[in-house]
Design a protein that fits this description.
The protein is of the alpha/beta class. The chain is built from 15 helices and 18 strands. Helix 11 links the parallel strand 10 and strand 11.
Length: about 450
């Protein structure tokens, strides 16, 4: 397609949801800028407003709708576009319920977005044209164009929006059948990206200043299964290790019962793959796990944690737990609470079950009262917070590696970064109170204090 030249139109872009969604946001950003649009942080001055929406759970749907309507109220004259999971989850029906939106697009249409925006901007009858553009391609569940046997082929065109790190989405969709999850219905089945393309994309991100690569997918451990590839994740990691500018590689979202046996060896031998694994357990009660449609063998989670700690030196684990699932009874929660108390996972997230349309769990109802869910979540968080305080107190005085991200969001008097065992946005922040450095690079820092999940330190260089 011939490059469109536009120099007078400004666009404002909002990214909602998970890191996997942010990858699509960066592709939208790159496509719009390449087409000549000018990005602005001020929605009131934008000619075009784009919201990359999330619809994983009902709360995310509500947030997306609130953001869309607020932006429309702030700038009623702007062209309003909604991308991402909202149109994927609800299809053409969302157009009927949200007439404020001028165009809905799925992730597969990101490359065509500038052309569609131009057509809408140049056509007074926006609503009529929108109906023509809202085809099955715009609303369809197909995420990518048909791919060959080597995996999804997507253009490596992204504008990096994160300071010193980048998310590398290695697959789309999911082949699991967890009974509470909407992702397979929204994003489709597992579609792994070609390994050569992932290496190319990683090298491009490194050239744009990324020093940390964070591998994301709905399930990293399934990477390559749809391509009949053996040890796909291990092969990919071995390729990514060869990128000189990349210093850290972080793994997020591994499925508990399919973690490769070779992973421990590779992490121990590598100078780049961090001994940080994000493994969403969701629960530990075999009865609840079976009802969830997840691996439920008695003691499986406990055995996995024990094995990984024995295999990987200095391992740090992150996990999430769901409380209030329809079949969770007091005894099941007691098992979960005991696991949290005795296993001492370094980073724990807790969320409350919510019934979602299109999931198998919906037919179970929602029998656990909201106040019981809140109480269970609070008890887990309280135990974990005390464990985190103990752990962080022992770090005071130690020297560790951190990724400097820039000025603090709280005050220009401090720098901000993350220690090697802090994933962005979820594991706390490192505030740097002394020392100076330029660039978003890896530095050594002496830990001086902490407050909850956040730590304070001084650069030692």
């Amino acid at each position: 397609m011939e490059r469109i030249t536009i120099t007078t139109h400004h666009f404002h872009l909002v990214s909602l949801g998970c890191p996997k969604n942010r990858v699509d946001t960066e592709r939208i950003l790159a496509n719009m800028i390449q087409a000549g649009f000018v990005h602005t942080e001020d929605p009131s001055s934008a000619h075009v407003i784009i919201v990359n929406s999330c619809a994983f759970i009902e709360a995310a749907v509500e947030e997306s709708i609130d953001v869309i309507l607020d932006l429309k109220a702030e700038n009623d004259n702007a062209l309003l576009i909604v991308a991402g999971c909202l149109p994927l989850r609800y299809g053409g029906a969302v157009g009927e319920t949200m007439p404020e939106v001028d165009l809905f697009v799925g992730p597969d249409a990101i490359g065509e977005l500038p052309e569609r925006v131009i057509a809408l901007l140049e056509t007074p009858e926006r609503n009529d044209l929108n109906q023509q553009l809202c085809t099955s391609r715009a609303f369809g569940l197909s995420i990518h164009s048909p791919s060959d046997k080597d995996g999804i082929v997507m253009p490596v065109m992204r504008t990096l929006s994160t300071p010193g790190y980048a998310y590398l989405r290695i697959a789309e969709g999911c082949g699991r059948k967890c009974h509470y999850c909407t992702i397979p219905g929204i994003r489709g089945p597992l579609q792994s990206t070609a390994i050569d393309q992932l290496e190319d994309e990683a090298r491009f991100l490194a050239s744009q200043g990324a020093r940390e690569l964070i591998l994301v997918a709905q399930d990293l451990t399934s990477y390559g299964l749809d391509l009949k590839a053996k040890a796909g994740l291990i092969r990919l990691l071995e390729r990514l290790e060869g990128i000189g500018e990349i210093e850290w590689i972080r793994l997020m979202y591994l499925f508990p019962n399919t973690i490769p046996q070779e992973l421990g060896r590779l992490v121990n031998q590598s100078e780049k793959i961090l001994p940080y694994l994000d493994i969403p357990f969701q629960h530990v009660s075999p009865r609840v796990l079976k009802s969830m449609g997840r691996p439920w063998k008695d003691g499986l989670i406990e055995q996995l944690v024990k094995r990984l700690r024995e295999e990987i030196e200095g391992l740090v684990l992150r996990t999430t737990f769901m409380v209030g699932y329809p079949t969770e009874e007091d005894e099941d929660f007691r098992q979960l609470l005991e696991f949290v108390e005795t296993t001492e996972i370094e980073h724990v997230g807790v969320f409350l079950y919510s019934p979602e349309e299109g999931t198998k769990a919906l037919e179970l109802g929602d029998p656990v009262p909201p106040e019981v869910k809140e109480d269970r979540a609070a008890r887990i968080r309280e135990i974990h917070a005390a464990q985190m305080d103990d752990r962080n107190s022992q770090r005071v005085g130690t020297v560790e590696k951190c990724l400097l991200e820039g000025l603090s969001e709280e005050t220009d008097l401090l720098l901000q970064g993350r220690l090697w065992d802090q994933a962005p946005e979820i594991d706390g922040i490192l505030y740097i109170t002394a020392g100076s450095a330029t660039g978003r690079e890896i530095h050594s820092v002496r830990i001086t204090d902490f407050n909850g999940p956040d730590l304070f330190g001084e650069l030692t260089e």
